[in-house]
Every structure is written in structure tokens, then in C-alpha cells.
């Protein structure tokens, strides 16, 4: 059973569709420390699409008009997903900060894992050096 992640922010965001006409569609969005979930009908009753931060490269292309802030989420496989939000909502900043926090925690974990592996390898070498 999957644990419910702590919600950082929840609200409405508009996503540009992948269709030929590229219409803007409202989505209910739930931001956690590990992912961004999008629900198509504005309710969490249906299965949403989850963008895990492990698959996101960056938040890019922020443009501000009088009414909206436009931004793009770029995935590690170079897919671009366009969003817009009302000017004062700052969804782009919330997503960017959560992504940076996730990437920093992952970098620290990777560094600690490498250190532990190097220490274990050093201990093994010392044991072999002492052997008759």
C-alpha cells in the first residue's frame, strides 16, 4: 500500500493539451515533496497523472503576461509540458522550489551512498593488506 505523501499545495492550474488545437484545460493539481499530480476533472475521484520529481529535469520558460504566468516542465526524456496559472498564484515558484528540494535531497543521499561504498572498499583493502 502506498503511503499518502504530505501535500505542499493543492489548487487549479491550466495545462496545454497535446492535441492539434493545443487548448488550455483546467486541472486540479496536487504538489507533494516527491511529485506533481494532475487530475482531469477537477476532482481527485478519477485516476490522475503523476509526474514524479525523479523524472523531471527542470521548470523552464517562465513568461508573464498581464493575466497569466506561462511555464514549461521539462522531463528527463525531453518532453515539454506547458502550463499557465493566474499571475498572482505563483504555482511555477512552488513547483520549482519543491523540485530543487527533491534534487538536493537526492544529491545528498547519492553522496552519502558513495562515501559508504568507498569506506567499505577501504576497509576491505586494509583487511587484505594485513592478511599473511
Automatic annotation (TrEMBL):
GO terms for molecular function: phosphatidylinositol phosphate binding. It is a peripheral membrane protein. Keywords: Cytoplasm, Membrane. InterPro entries: PH-like_dom_sf (IPR011993), PH_domain (IPR001849), PHLA1/2/3 (IPR042832). Pfam families: PH (PF00169). Its main location: cytoplasm. Residues 7-102 form the PH domain. The keyword Cytoplasm applies. Plays a role in regulating placenta growth. May act via its PH domain that competes with other PH domain-containing proteins, thereby preventing their binding to membrane lipids. Belongs to the PHLDA2 family. This is Pleckstrin homology-like domain family A member 2.
Amino acid at each position: 500500500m502506498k503511503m499518502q505523501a504530505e501535500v505542499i499545495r493543492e489548487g487549479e492550474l491550466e495545462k496545454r493539451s497535446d492535441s492539434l488545437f493545443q487548448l488550455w484545460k483546467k486541472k486540479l493539481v496536487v504538489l507533494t515533496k516527491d511529485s506533481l499530480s494532475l487530475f482531469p476533472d477537477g476532482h481527485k475521484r478519477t485516476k490522475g497523472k503523476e509526474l514524479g520529481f525523479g523524472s523531471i529535469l527542470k521548470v523552464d520558460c517562465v513568461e508573464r503576461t498581464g493575466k497569466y504566468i506561462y511555464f514549461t516542465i521539462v522531463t528527463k526524456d525531453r518532453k515539454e509540458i506547458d502550463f499557465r496559472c493566474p499571475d498572482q498564484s505563483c504555482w511555477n515558484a512552488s513547483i520549482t522550489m519543491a523540485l530543487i528540494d527533491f534534487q538536493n535531497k537526492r544529491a545528498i543521499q547519492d553522496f552519502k551512498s558513495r562515501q559508504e561504498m568507498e569506506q567499505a572498499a577501504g576497509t576491505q583493502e586494509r583487511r587484505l593488506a594485513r592478511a599473511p
